[in-house]
Design brief:
By secondary structure, the chain is α+β, with helices and mostly antiparallel strands. It has a single domain, classed as Rossmann fold, CATH 3.40.50. It is built from 5 helices and 4 strands, in the order βαβαααββα. The chain has helices at residues 33-43, 56-65, 71-74, 79-88, 125-129, and strands at residues 18-24, 44-54, 92-100, 106-113. A 4-stranded mixed β-sheet has the order 1-2-4-3. A hairpin with a 5-residue loop joins strand 3 and strand 4 (106-113).
């Protein structure tokens, strides 16, 4: 395994190289989620899967107790809005699963897949973000 540091909007990888991408509960911190998702879609191989894990209950509590100046106060933690952004970026079969761990810890996982026929899903990111 290698770890890379970089800009999520400009990932330093060739297109269609990864079969899986994992995001651990930080989508609400991204400055421009749609740009990040389009870039993530670009690096996924056809049929590849992106999994985003989160604990919506913990996020709601954190947002509620955040100070008025905290970025968390205005963060969009809504998983449905995030799922819509995944679809807008070109992902297919976007769904959320509600899961629990053996220690009674509950969390959610959002699954999204790169389309097999990627030519049918070209997204002009400049047009989309200016609407």
């Amino acid at each position: 395994m290698e770890i890379f540091e970089g800009n999520l909007s400009h990932l330093p990888f060739p297109s269609h190289i990864f079969d899986r991408v994992f995001v651990c509960g930080n989508y609400y911190k991204w400055n421009n989620p749609l740009h990040v998702l389009v870039e993530t879609y670009r690096i996924l191989a056809p049929g590849g899967m992106m999994v985003t894990t989160l604990d919506i209950s913990a996020l709601q509590k954190e947002k509620k107790k955040a100070s008025p100046r905290s970025p968390m106060k205005t963060a969009n933690i809504d998983p449905v809005a995030y799922m819509h952004s995944l679809e807008t970026a070109g992902f297919a079969d976007v769904n959320i699963c509600y899961l629990s761990h053996a220690n009674n810890l509950s969390y959610q996982a959002i699954f999204a897949y790169a389309r097999i026929d990627r030519e049918a899903t070209h997204l002009n990111i400049e047009e989309e973000t200016t609407r």
